[in-house]
Design a protein that fits this description.
This protein is α+β, with helices and mostly antiparallel strands and about 190 residues long. It contains four helices and five strands; from the N terminus they run ααββαβαββ. The chain is about 25% helix and about 25% strand. It has a five-stranded antiparallel sheet.
Length: about 190
Amino acid sequence: MKFDDSDKDYFLHNFHGDGNRDNSTSSQVETKVDTSDVSPAFDFGSHSQEAKPLPDSLTAKSPKKRRKGGWVWFFVVLALILCTAVSIRYFVPYVTESRTVGYVTLVEKRGIVFPTFEGEMINESQLTDTTRIYSRDVYFSIPDDSIALRLQKYQGTGRPVTVTCKRYYGTLPWRGASNNILVGFEPVK
């Protein structure tokens, strides 16, 4: 690469002005250097040509803008993942048709802010099995008051009922204290 440094003010030259070294002094005129025998290393073009558009590599987004866009996408994806996890945990039942036959032992309304009916039932298969010791009761929440009041009539009567429940991974206060939610019942004949 050849570089012509014969002009002593090459780097101070005003390429857009009237050819003066600086705008304050108009008495000194720039001297032209004959560069016909030397190929120029830098071509600044003439002042009369229109500006050419920059290539795509120079007009690309700056690293800060790319980084900012990356953070926006990161938070959007994170919000989608969190919304999906919350909806699966609290609003999508993982068991929809759980049926249990047993005897209702307790139906009562519990709660201060969100009072809901809570029920307790002894599983019939646990009572008839004589080889194993009785192990558990069935607990469920009843969000519908009309179903709870009808089920309360079977409490302590010794008549078996079949309850249909949905099971969720998490509990919500307005749905009840249990992740088993009673959706219906019918007496066994």
